[in-house]
Inverse folding.
C-alpha cells in the first residue's frame, strides 16, 4: 500500500449522547440516545463473529471512488488481514462498506465486511457478505462470502470501522418516524459536524432498520467500459432497489474531512432474507424504526489515498 496517514480523534463518547439526542430530534419524531452495554453481537440479527465493537477503535478509509470512476483501476486490490496490520491492530474486528473483491469473484459487487482478521492466536473468521446483480432477472443477489471463497480481499474503496471486538459501553440510538429530510446517518454526522466544527470526530458500529423500507443501490457486475464523469452518469449505471426490513447496516462516518479526501459517510446493509446493498435512505418515513449501537473512533487512518480526485459518485 502506497501511503498512510493517522489522525487522533478526541475521545468524548459520553458528551455525544446529548448532542445526538438533540440533533436527531430535529429529524425524527421519537428519539432516545443513551450509553448502554453493547448487546451480544454474535446473536441474531447481527450474527457477527465477535461480541462487541469496543477496544482500540479506529476508522480506516482505504482507496477511494477515483479508483472506480471514471474508469476502474484494477491494480487497486486489498487484503483485510493486511489492513488490520497497517492500522496497528492485527486480529481487529472490521466492519463497514466497500467494493467486493473482483480479483476473487471475477465480477464487481457491493461488499459488507464483517470480519475478525487473523492474529497470532486465532485464524480469521470471515462473516462478510457481498451483493451483486442477478444476471437472470436483474434483481439483487446477496451471499455470504465465506460460503464459496476463502480469501480476505476487498477492492478499490473501503470505509472501515475496526476494534478489538470487545464488549463494553456503546451509544445506543433509537429513532422512529422520520419527519425531516436527512437519512439516519447523515443526520448524526451533520449533528456532530455542527457541534464539533473543525475538530473531526468519527463513529462506526451497526444499526438495524426494524420497520419500513429503504432505497439502496448495487453496482453492476461489469465495470463501466466508457468513462462515468458525473453523478448522472453514475446513477444511470447503478441499479436501485427498495429493500425491506429487517436490514442490518454497517455505518462508518466522520464529521468533517481534515483534508484527506474522505468519503464522510458510507453504509452498507445485509439481511437474512437475501437483500443487501448500499444504504441511501428510508422510503417509509411514517413507520421507519432504527435501532443502532455506535462506538466513537479513537483514530483515523487514511490508506492509499488517490492522488487524482473528483467529487462525484459519493452519494
Ligand atoms: Zn457503497
Amino acid at each position: 500500500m502506497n501511503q498512510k496517514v493517522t489522525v487522533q480523534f478526541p475521545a468524548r463518547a459520553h458528551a455525544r449522547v446529548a448532542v445526538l439526542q438533540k440533533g436527531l430530534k430535529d429529524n425524527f419524531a421519537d428519539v432516545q440516545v443513551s450509553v448502554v452495554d453493547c448487546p451480544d453481537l454474535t446473536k441474531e440479527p447481527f450474527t457477527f463473529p465477535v461480541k462487541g465493537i469496543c477496544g482500540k477503535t479506529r476508522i480506516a478509509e482505504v482507496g477511494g471512488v477515483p479508483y472506480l470512476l471514471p474508469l476502474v483501476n484494477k491494480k487497486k486490490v486489498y487484503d483485510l488481514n493486511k489492513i488490520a496490520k497497517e492500522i496497528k491492530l492485527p486480529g481487529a474486528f472490521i466492519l463497514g462498506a466497500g467494493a467486493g473483491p473482483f480479483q476473487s469473484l471475477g465480477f464487481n459487487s457491493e461488499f459488507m465486511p464483517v470480519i475478525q482478521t487473523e492474529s497470532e492466536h486465532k485464524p480469521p473468521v470471515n462473516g462478510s457478505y457481498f451483493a451483486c446483480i442477478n444476471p437472470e432477472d436483474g434483481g439483487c443477489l446477496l451471499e455470504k462470502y465465506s460460503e464459496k471463497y476463502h480469501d480476505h480481499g476487498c477492492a478499490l474503496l473501503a470505509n472501515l470501522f475496526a476494534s478489538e471486538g470487545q464488549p463494553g459501553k456503546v451509544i445506543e440510538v433509537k429513532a422512529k418516524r422520520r419527519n425531516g429530510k436527512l437519512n439516519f446517518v447523515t443526520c448524526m454526522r451533520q449533528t456532530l459536524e455542527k457541534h464539533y466544527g473543525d475538530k473531526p470526530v468519527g463513529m462506526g458500529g451497526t444499526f438495524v432498520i426494524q420497520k419500513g423500507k429503504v432505497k439502496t443501490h448495487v453496482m453492476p457486475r461489469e465495470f463501466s467500459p466508457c468513462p462515468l464523469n458525473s453523478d448522472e452518469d453514475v446513477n444511470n449505471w447503478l441499479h436501485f432497489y427498495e429493500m425491506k426490513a429487517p436490514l442490518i447496516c454497517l455505518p462508518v462516518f466522520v464529521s468533517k474531512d481534515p483534508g484527506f479526501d474522505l468519503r464522510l459517510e458510507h453504509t452498507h446493509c445485509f439481511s437474512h432474507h437475501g437483500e443487501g446493498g448500499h444504504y441511501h435512505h428510508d422510503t417509509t418515513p411514517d413507520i421507519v424504526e432504527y435501532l443502532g449501537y455506535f462506538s466513537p473512533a479513537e483514530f483515523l487512518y487514511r490508506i492509499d489515498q488517490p492522488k487524482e480526485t473528483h467529487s462525484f459518485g459519493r452519494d
User: Anything to note?
Assistant: The pocket of zinc ion is lined by residues 97, 110, 266, 268, 278 (CB under 6 Å). DSSP finds five helices and 20 strands in the chain. The CA atoms of residues 184 and 249 lie 11 Å apart.
